[in-house]
Amino acid sequence: MGLSNAERQRRWRAKRPEAERALLQDVERCERGELSDRERIDLADKLADVAMRHQWRATEFARAARGVRTGER
């Protein structure tokens, strides 16, 4: 039997800091000029994706906060 959603989330949350640290290390490599053009483009796409996911989560939390404030939740 597969993992439950809670188990998948727990694993993902444990790995997330490692993934973010790796992205920031790649940014440092880029700043030192160690990445090819293709690698820079791929890194920019990954960073944009992470930023969009963070923005989506922030929007969801803001919507929940408005609901709590107004008594709609």
What low-confidence regions span 5 or more consecutive residues with pLDDT below 50? none
Radius of gyration, CA atoms, in whole angstroms:
17 Å
Number of strand elements: 0
**How would you spell out the order of helices and strands?**
HH
Question: What's the overall average pLDDT, rounded?
Answer: 92
Helix-and-strand structural type: mainly alpha
Q: How far do the termini sit from each other? A: 35 Å
What proportion of the residues is helical, as a percent range? over 70%
- Quickly count the domains: 1
| Fraction of residues in β-strands | under 5%
Enumerate how many helices there are, as a single number. 2
What best-fitting shape do the alpha-carbon axes yield? flat
Q: Could you give a short account of the major beta sheet?
A: none
Task: Show the helix and strand layout.
Blueprint: H1 5-31, H2 37-70
Helix pairs in contact: 1-2
What does this structure look like?
- It contains two helices and no strands.
- Helices cover 84% and strands 0% of the residues.
- It is mostly helical.
- The protein has one domain.
